[in-house]
Design brief:
Elements: H1 24-53, H2 58-63, H3 76-122, H4 128-140, H5 143-157, H6 164-170, H7 174-187, H8 190-198, H9 203-214, H10 216-231, H11 235-240, H12 249-260, H13 269-298
């Protein structure tokens, strides 16, 4: 004879069993929040120092605390006016040079990286693996290691101390090429290109009408990377340019800073700080204006119909 053992049932009026909450995720979230806060403070304190000290006079810079405003004169607008007019408007020339280097150099680098990356991702040809290895090797080589050989080559060609000595090296962006290569391989379906070709569209028209809209987030990413690299480029213009008329902002503000370190040159230090603040504003504006293109591409292809 078999006996059936029934498990005891919990009475209906008994209190529900409460399980202990899982705290591991909360601890991770708290740690991540604290780490993000530390990184944010580390990044924003220098910017806050720059904004605060750009409002001070030369005397205020010497007699007040660096992380707070001066109780005396609010000299931000006076400093901006002096920055644009000092040394016969040298800051304006340097700003124009920097914009030219960015538009021609960074814009050209983005265009070349987009064309080359799309071609490497969507076309097969002999030597493609060798090109891939070359691109990866070029990404691994730092730009400073190529500055001196580039200077010697441009010196033989007679291009030093000209804008082309800064623009031509800026046209080459191995990282941008690699980024567009990988992005094009994932963002553009081969079936869509085949359908366009079957409808009679040429390769150039297919690229402009179909591929470029899909490559928008990648193009903006490469553009921002190359723009920041060209805008903040210091070492290459330092060894290539001797004429102050062709200086970018980085070299020009460094020249002012050297002048401020001399005896009697402390009156220029407030212009160095104000010029540095004005230098980063276009980069901030570019990131704020172009971030919507990133957001529009984050969910591309995530919904399957």
């Amino acid at each position: 004879m078999t006996t059936t053992v029934q498990s005891p049932r919990r009475p209906r009026d008994a209190a529900p069993v409460r399980r202990k909450p899982y705290r591991r995720g909360n601890r991770r979230s708290l740690t991540l929040t604290l780490l993000t806060g530390v990184v944010a403070i580390y990044s924003l304190v220098p910017l806050f120092w720059l904004v605060v000290n750009a409002t001070k006079t030369p005397e205020g810079l010497l007699g007040s605390f660096g992380l707070w405003f001066d109780d005396g004169k609010f000299a931000l607008f006076d400093n901006i006016a002096q920055t644009f007019t000092y040394d016969d408007g040298a800051f304006v020339r340097w700003l124009g040079n920097t914009v030219m280097y960015v538009v021609v150099g960074a814009g050209g680098a983005t265009m070349l990286a987009t064309l080359a990356g799309y071609g490497l991702a969507k076309f097969n040809f002999v030597g493609k693996r060798a090109v891939f290895a070359t691109v990866i090797g070029a990404v691994a080589v730092p730009g400073t290691a190529l500055a001196v050989p580039t200077f010697l080559m441009f010196s033989k060609m007679g291009l030093t101390n000209t804008p082309w000595s800064v623009i031509i090296p800026s046209l080459v962006s191995p990282f941008g090429l690699y980024l567009m290569w990988t992005f094009s391989a994932q963002a553009i379906p081969d079936e869509m290109l085949e359908a366009a070709r079957m409808d009679g569209a040429g390769e150039f028209r297919t690229f402009l009408r179909i591929s470029v809209p899909l490559l928008g987030p990648g193009i903006v990413t490469v553009l921002l990377f190359t723009m920041v690299a060209t805008w903040n480029n210091y070492f290459l213009p330092l060894i290539m340019l001797k004429d102050p008329a062709w200086y970018p902002l980085t070299i020009g503000l460094n020249a002012w800073n050297d002048q401020a370190q001399t005896v009697g040159g402390q009156a220029v230090f407030n212009l160095v700080i104000t010029g540095s603040l004005l230098t980063i504003l276009p980069l901030l504006a570019a990131f704020l204006l172009l971030q919507r293109y990133w957001q529009s591409g984050l969910t591309a292809g995530s919904v399957k119909e």
